[in-house]
Design goal:
358 residues, mainly beta, 27 strands, 4% helix, binds beta-D-glucopyranose
Length: 358
């Protein structure tokens, strides 16, 4: 790749939270001119500029204009999700013989850690690493915060690499046995945010199994083959091809909003998904170490949100790929465990890599 400039990271104010905490917005630029803005409020990616097949840059993530809007009405745009990504049925789980109750924030269920890691201010240390500009975020979640046991020390390092990747590395440690399931929640539109629905994007998911849900989007506990279902996206398929088929699983969610089981070995970084937007020629590959990932097609967006540059975000105008452990894992013994004990280190790496197609 031709080098456009040297990589850099700069910081400016993004305002104060409603409780008076100062928040920054960091601008990361890599050697190819790709750019990301990231705020330490919720570890949120506010914008991500990548080239199309002709080298024209567009902002590929949905986002809001102000910190206040992120505090008040963000549907988890671009944020760091924790302590527990996705749903825990009725907010209840058992750990070490003890029952825990989390506040419900999604019908009867707990979603994305409650008033979680997306709604706190992280300590931020910018640097320029060999790979590219990097932002190291740290947060200590107190014992009992949002109902979870154990003081959890979390580090999330975001790097905009010189290979046009957004690389996210998470680490966590606890002082009491707890549960952890962190992920990233950008809504992507490879044609550019605010450029209509994502149904023409061609998706490949390297996952032969998924975890079916009930009408509250809680896994039933089954791990099913995608064969013969609209969830078979093993071969390149336009997102819109099967999304409105008459299938109960799709009806529950108004489209795709499910956890797939990654084919690659758990704990190893491997390719889990690929997306190609035919008009711009942009390609995004997703790599992860996690056992699964939520593929969500923005079914709950409804055109009521005005985002960056005044864009209206309609239903299915962005999609999320959230590498993680399976939803509601603490209540399913057959799912990989999300337990973290004192002395252990939680590790999770996610890479969103951007390429130019023909
Ligand atoms: C969930 C959706 C939810 C969305 C939040 C996704 O991870 O699976 O059901 O609506 O996050 O906006």
């Amino acid at each position: 790749m031709k080098k456009a400039s040297i990589s850099s990271i700069s910081e400016k104010s993004f305002g104060k939270t409603s409780s008076g905490q100062n928040v920054s917005l960091f601008t990361l630029k890599n050697e190819n001119g790709a750019m990301a803005t990231i705020t330490n409020y919720g570890g949120t990616v506010v914008s991500l500029l990548m080239p199309d097949r002709h080298g024209k840059f567009s902002d590929l993530v949905l986002g809001l204009r102000t910190l206040r809007e992120y505090e008040e009405k963000s549907p988890y745009f671009g944020c760091l999700v924790g302590r527990f990504g996705n749903r825990i049925a009725k907010g209840a789980f058992k750990l070490g013989g003890k029952n825990y109750q989390l506040p419900a924030n999604n019908g009867p269920n707990s979603l994305h850690g409650g008033k979680g890691f997306d709604k706190v201010v992280w300590r931020a240390v910018p640097s320029v690493a060999k790979l590219g500009p990097s932002l190291r975020l740290t947060y200590t979640s107190r014992d009992g915060e949002e109902g979870y046991p154990g003081t959890l020390q979390v580090t999330a390092t975001y790097t905009l690499t010189n290979r046009n990747e957004l690389k996210l590395v998470y680490r966590a440690k606890t002082d009491k046995t707890t549960i952890v399931n962190l992920t990233h929640h950008s809504y992507f539109n490879l044609a550019g945010h605010g450029h209509g629905e994502i149904l023409d994007h061609v998706v490949t998911l390297h996952a032969g199994k998924f975890t079916p849900v009930n009408k509250n989007l809680i896994p039933t506990g089954k791990i099913s083959s995608v064969k013969g279902t609209p969830f078979d996206l093993l071969k390149p398929t336009a997102i819109g091809t099967h999304i409105d088929e008459d299938a109960a699983q799709l009806k529950f969610a108004g489209g795709y909003d499910h956890n797939w089981v990654a084919d690659k070995p758990v704990g190893q970084l491997g390719l889990i998904a690929k997306f190609e937007e035919p008009k711009s020629g942009r390609i995004m590959e997703v790599f992860s170490t996690e056992p699964g990932f939520q593929f969500y097609t923005g079914n709950f967006l409804d055109g009521s949100l005005r985002g960056k540059a005044g864009k209206i975000y309609h239903r299915r105008s962005g999609f999320c790929v959230e590498p993680q452990h399976f939803p509601d894992s603490p209540n399913h013994k057959n799912f990989p465990s999300t337990r973290l004990r004192p002395g252990e280190v939680y590790k999770n790496t996610i890479i969103y890599r951007f390429l130019k197609g023909k």
